[in-house]
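Work Package 4 report. The design task specified in the project plan requires that, given a folded chain encoded as structure tokens, an amino acid be chosen for each position. We show below one input record used in the internal validation round.
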């Protein structure tokens, strides 16, 4: 099987990962062309967290935050009610 040069509309949403060691910590930036924060992002974040954790351990540095740059956040209409409920949750860190 080959996929190089094959025309397809199935394009990955994660388009790039930047990894930098600064001040003894691995900083990660993930670039997405599109992202559904309700159904897809948890899986992408779990992958990136595990990947960067393993890489940081291999490099013997701390793991810093993962930053996200997303060109288009998309929530399908079928998930609108879930998005509305999520928006109502108080995410404040105040005690």
């Amino acid at each position: 099987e080959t996929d190089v040069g094959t025309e397809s509309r199935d394009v990955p949403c994660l388009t790039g990962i930047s990894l930098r060691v600064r001040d003894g910590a691995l900083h990660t930036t993930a670039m997405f062309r599109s992202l559904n924060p309700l159904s897809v992002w948890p899986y992408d974040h779990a992958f990136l967290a595990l990947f960067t954790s393993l890489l940081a351990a291999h490099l013997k540095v701390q793991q810093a935050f993962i930053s996200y740059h997303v060109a288009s956040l998309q929530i399908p209409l079928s998930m609108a009610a879930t998005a509305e409920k999520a928006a109502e949750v108080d995410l404040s860190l105040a005690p």
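DSSP finds two helices and three strands in the chain. Validation will be extended to a larger panel in the next phase.
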